[in-house]
Amino acid sequence: MPLRSCHARNQNRTSARAHTHTRSSPPTTQLRLQAAANAGSTAALLSLSDRYFTGLGVPRSPHTALQYANLAARQIAQDVEKSHSKGRPWANRRIADAPVP
Q: Is the full-model pTM beyond 0.70?
């Protein structure tokens, strides 16, 4: 089989996958992600950030993407602070208050 036909076959598969991906319901996915983010899912916040940054299923908005990324970062920082302060009196200081080297 010539290399060219193999390459063409791979392109057809890729475009078919991309086409089926665009058939999914972006509003439904967006609503589910929004609900999960409102329920406290860090992964959903990061996914929403990525969607707004790239414009996947939503209007492209770097500003909104940054807002979601900041919310996720704050949530991660709070989780880390909670996990480090359990049973360790020396770790009761907030990470944000630590001196910068």
A: no
